Amino acid sequence: MQVALDDYVWAAGVATDLVNTAPEVWHGEDHLPDLAALAGFADLHSIPSPASDLRAVHRLRATVRNLIDHPDREHLITGASSLTSPAGHVTLLADGTRWAVAPQRGATISDLLSLICGIAILGAVQTLGVERFRACGAPTCQGAFIDTTRPGRRRYCMPGLCGNRVNVANHRARFKHRDA
């Protein structure tokens, strides 16, 4: 597997999805509770590695969350640079115009996710700026995300879930106020 250095948007999606599997986002329920869930996460994101080191992935998840929660440029760059340490070598992709980094031989899923999250953070900081690292705007959510949308106006960690909940609550409040 190679991760293109300019593919930070995909990588930021993986990083966002990883941090939002944590129990604090799901009111105590961990969405990566076992190796089967980790394997499903890897399959969902086309990450080819045996899911074997769940504790390492949980530690990585906490590290990435800490970086997103403290969007200071130097903190992000230092932290993301350390995440890319499982990188093996940088190569030119077949198209001859883009560079990619490959993990070291025998890399674990934690190593691959670390590399992907490091690329996500470094790419987003360089291209979009630190203001794109945010907490979810839903009042009942503890999620976080890296906003890679073009206008940079994303408000929710999971727009289909958190955004929908906020819209439903606002709709119900309008009707409740109207009926009162």
CATH class: Mainly Alpha
Number of alpha- plus pi-helical segments: 6
What fold name goes in the CATH topology slot?
Answer: Jann2411-like fold
Q: Count the beta strands.
A: 5
For the record, the CATH architecture stands as Orthogonal Bundle
Strand order of the largest sheet: 1-3-2
Poorly predicted ranges: none
- The end-to-end span amounts to 59 Å
List SSEs in N-to-C order.
Answer: EHHHHEEHEEH
CATH homologous superfamily classification: Jann2411-like domain
Helix content: 40-55%
Shape call: globular
Strand content: 5-15%
Structural class computed from helices and strand pairing? mainly alpha
Biggest sheet features: 3 strands, antiparallel
Number of domains: 1
Outline of the structure:
This protein has helices at 8-19, 35-44, 54-69, 73-83, 109-127, 159-179, and strands spanning 3-4, 87-92, 99-103, 133-135, 144-146. The protein is mainly α and 180 residues long.
